[in-house]
Design brief:
mainly alpha; 9 helices; 73% helix; transmembrane; membrane; UCP010219; transmembrane helix
Amino acid sequence: MAPSEPSLTEVLGGRGGAVDATVPVAAFVLAWGLAGALGWPGPIAWGGGAAVLAAGVVAVVRLRGGTRPRAVVFGLLGVTVAAIVALATGNAADFFLVRLLGNAVSALAWAVSIVVRWPLLGLVVGTALGQHTRWRRDPDLLRGYQRASWVWVAQYVVRLAVFLPLYSAGAVVALGVAQTVLTWPLVAICVASSWPLVRSALPEGHGGIRHPR
């Protein structure tokens, strides 16, 4: 790979965002479990409050570190909605319902994007590199993005396969553990494996993701 050619790991970023997503989950499970063990009233409210507070702290840290405000707001909003849903239903497991639905929608969206030849990975990378949709006119690069996008579909399917039985059983602690274990490790795997899969579709001498033909 040429020195000027960025890897997809550099373009897509590391696992920081995925790690951030697990902090509010851990806060919810710990506060909910502690409140229940101590007999405090409203354990879901304690869990939800702890989750939103944790998400707020993460948001402040990321804003100070230069993360885009929109991404920070979306993260905080997602946790807030999850807490509201759990409070409204009175079921602690419903704190994970938003994420569960999000994984289902994401799996479908990524799969459809591949089938219609607008792979979402290409859109994400193209936008990050300021190429917009120029990469689509390169059949080799398009094929590479399609191959790599299937890895991202797989991560959502794996999460659903684990989350659905746990959600049906109301296993809040297990859901929290699964959310942590299956968030940043899967994202790290997807980011790390995306470049080799894209590269496998490019012929010798191709300019790479920065230089669509």
